């Protein structure tokens, strides 16, 4: 069975964002949009069809020079992160992918690659991580139902090797997820304080604004989406991550 493409391994190790931009048809710092003129009054092609030979570049302009600076975004890392995020749509259960949408399956086949992606995509998550990405599945997260009078529906995984730690959560798949998406309030980021409580707290969206706007030095804490934060805080009760300070990452999962 084929593993992660050799070219992609080289790109990820060397941080070659330009190669990623070409593969995914993204705009790079050398990009110049080319729009063909209409050949006649009977030319009914839209501007998109006449741009870059009918295959216009996608997304915002990415400058690889800024990506190498502190805090800069690297396209190769973002693509790798998106792949890890999408892998959470499957798991090691016998009924995995039963309700997966066609688009989810196409994306899964794209990211596993190989000679038979339609077969590889149906393998257990732990096997896909090991054979395609050289990662070990350390922990599977699955919490759903009512927890402390709040609806919770969170699935995901933690995987690692000697160089990488991946924490991935599943995207929107249930009514609870859609309810969380509709939340429009934020709370202060203080997981150590909220962990014992199991959520952000009552009226958490009202706290911290005075500090942010009225204190002279504005030493307010970062704010996060309240519903997603509640999911994160509850799951953190049942999942403990220990990262060794040396070059090896050790992950211990304590499931309820």
Task: Provide the descriptors you would attach to this structure in a database record.
256 residues; disordered N terminus; 34% helix; three-stranded antiparallel β-sheet; two-stranded antiparallel sheet; alpha+beta; 5 strands; 11 helices
Shape: globular
The residue ranges in which pLDDT falls below 50 over 5 or more consecutive positions are: 1-15, 240-256
Structural class of the helix and strand makeup?
alpha+beta
Number of helices: 11
- Spatial strand arrangement across the major sheet: 1-2-3
Helical residue percent band? 25-40%
- Strand percentage lies at 5-15%
The tally of beta strands, per DSSP, is: 5
End-to-end Cα distance: 35 Å
Oligomer: single chain
Question: Whole-number radius of gyration?
Answer: 22 Å
Mean pLDDT: 76
SSE pattern: HHHHHHHEEEHEHHEH
The major pleated sheet works out as: 3 strands, antiparallel
